[in-house]
Amino acid sequence: MSKSDLLNAMMASLDPSRIRTDEASLTLLACDAMHPSRLPAGTESARPLCVVSPRSTAEVQEVVRLANAHRVPVIPLGGGSGLMGGAATVTPGVVLDLCRLTEVRIRPVDRMAEAGAGATIAALNAAAKPHGLTCGHDPWTVSVATVGGTIATNSLGYLGGKYGAMGDQVLGLEAVTPTGEIVATRAVEKASTGPGLHRLLIGAEGCFGVVTRATLRLFPIPQTRLLEGWEFDDFAAGFEAINALLQAGIRPGLLEYGDDDPSADHEPPTSLYLSYEGPEAVARAEAQTGREVCLQSGGQALDPSEVQRFWDQRHASGDAYARARRAGERRGRPEIDYVHVALPPSAVPAYRRESLKLLAARGFHVHQTGLWAYAGLFSLVYSGGGVSAMAETHAQLLELAQDANGAMEYCHGVGLRLAPLMRREHGEGLSVLRRLKRELDPNGIMNPGKLDF
Ligand SMILES: Cc1cc2nc3c(=O)[nH]c(=O)nc-3n(C[C@H](O)[C@H](O)[C@H](O)COP(=O)(O)OP(=O)(O)OC[C@H]3O[C@@H](n4cnc5c(N)ncnc54)[C@H](O)[C@@H]3O)c2cc1C
After folding, report:
1. Atom of ligand 1 at shortest distance to CA of 205?
2. So what's the pLDDT on residue 332?
3. 3-99+437-444 carries CATH number 3.30.750.210
4. What residues contact residue 92 under an 8 Å CB cut-off, 6+ apart?
5. For the segment 55-72, what is each residue's pLDDT rounded down to a tens digit?
6. Does residue 149 line the site of ligand 1, with CB under 6 A?
7. Residues 411, 31: contact at Cβ < 8 Å?
8. Closest residue (by CA) to atom 8 of ligand 1?
9. Which of 140, 142, 183, 329 to mutate to test the pocket of ligand 1 (most atoms within 8 A of CB)?
10. CB 143 near ligand 1, within 6 Å
11. Model confidence pLDDT, tens digit, residues 320-347
């Protein structure tokens, strides 16, 4: 059976208006936010066969069943804001655009939301707000990232330290397996009835099936959110304050820490932005302890207007990406690269030192080092060098993190870009993951090429 047989079969069993083959859709929806220069060597972009936009789980099931019968790849697509090429087409197939699955139902008494995979996080929050609830997941891309995409990448947001990553919000899932069965797990706070099948879909980047719907935990909108900012003499001083804060049992909502233009022989001052949130008395008490801790590490309070400005603008670059994507434009600054590695907190100082040395030796300029949400989630932003020097250096920085018992990425997933390092990341575990993949997806149709599966 050929690919055109599949197209004909889909035209016959679905409303044809759900299927697009026009050049503009095929070009735009064949990629996410990863710049093409970041494709691993030997991997090339491909033209999708078509884009299908189902309106229901049953339609998703029909597409997957037909694609499986015809042995044609399916590439799930949410908002297309992924940075690793997870939703990029490299093997011609059906782009399964899930953005029409937007229904959201709030269950206020349960503090839960039932959300279609295509609802954006902003839409989810808008629906929860009248009930005094919020989803707690607050990525830069809140206006474009979808429920399905954020679950599939186990995304992290500004408030992740207090509320958890997107995967932590998932109580139950409905999904279509690669062979076309619909599975739904029970949405409860906690079950002890065998391995939770829903967990298999979290962070799986569409390789184990298509998330169609999720039941998510919601949180009360905090009565009070106190924003605070502190300047420290150098990275080490602020790092000490963050660890002391966490050791004191304080859990800020926002924890954003970083410097500008550090180098192997220059330690600039750093800024720490924090929020204390919850019932007013609790937030105030936490803020008081936080102040004592920051002062003890030599911190100086920042002007509150500076912290407010940071908070107000925190989604600006995600919003700009969303606008550009809607306008059909490609964005991306391939000259700037970054890593977001997860380290044991004790490994952070040495990792930072070694990375700065490595980048200096190779003539790169470091724009920023920082921490997000936790003391061990470390990021670096740098520029310089050509495409191949950048790719080689990027891999070395990730390997350095793996060698420090860390994970090579903490929020953007693996996609295509980090796939070459999956064996190093998981060791024999990758073989086990591949066995699971073969069992669930015997014809290898779901998102081929991703995660090195
Ligand atoms: C400017 C900018 C800022 C960003 N900031 C953040 C941030 O703060 N935190 C963060 O974590 N990430 C951030 N990202 C990355 C991106 O927003 C996240 O990875 C997000 O979770 C992707 O969601 P999406 O709906 O756009 O998914 P997509 O990019 O469409 O897809 C991501 C992956 O999920 C799979 N997928 C999508 N939908 C489904 C589904 N329903 N079922 C199964 N698989 C599916 C795709 O195949 C792909 O592998 C940022 C990106 C940009 C461009």
Report:
1. 49
2. 74
3. no
4. 3, 46, 47, 48, 49, 73
5. 999 999 999 999 999 999
6. yes
7. no
8. 139
9. 140
10. no
11. 999 999 998 877 788 899 999 999 999 9
Lowest-confidence region among 163-167, 388-392, 445-449: 388-392
In the chain, where the domains are located: 3-99+437-444, 104-220, 224-301, 333-413
Q: 155 in ligand 1 pocket by Cβ < 6 Å?
A: yes
Fold annotation for 333-413: Alpha-Beta Plaits (3.30.70)
Q: Between 3.30.465.10, 3.40.1080.10, 2.60.40.10, 3.40.50.1010, what CATH number should domain 104-220 receive?
A: 3.30.465.10
What's the gap in Å between 165 CA and the centre of ligand 1?
Answer: 13
Convert the pLDDT of each residue in 373-415 to its tens digit. 999 999 999 999 888 899 999 999 999 999 999 999 999 999 9
Mean pLDDT for the chain overall = 96
Pairwise CA distance, residues 11 & 31, whole Å: 24
Query: pTM score, two decimals?
Result: 0.98
Instruction: Report whether residue 370 contacts ligand 1, using a CB cutoff of 6 Å.
Output: no
- Residue of 97, 173, 412, 452 to mutate, ligand 1, most atoms within 8 A of C-beta: 412
Q: Is the separation of the CB atoms in 25 and 51 below 8 Å? A: yes
Q: Is the CB of 148 under 6 A from ligand 1?
A: yes
C-alpha closest to that of 203 among 38, 447, 438: 447
Rounded Cα–Cα distance for residues 121 and 126 (Å): 9
Q: Does ligand 1 come within 6 angstroms of the Cβ of 32?
A: yes
Q: Tell me whether the CATH fold assigned to 3-99+437-444 matches the one assigned to 104-220.
A: no
pLDDT at 3 over 90: no
**Span 36-42, mean pLDDT?**
91
User: Could you tell me the distance, in angstroms and rounded to a whole number, from the CA of residue 49 to the centre of ligand 1?
Assistant: 22
Q: Which pLDDT does position 328 carry in this prediction?
A: 87
CB contact set of 91 (below 8 Å; sequence gap of 6+): 46, 73, 448, 449
Q: Indicate the CATH number for domain 224-301.
A: 3.30.70.3450
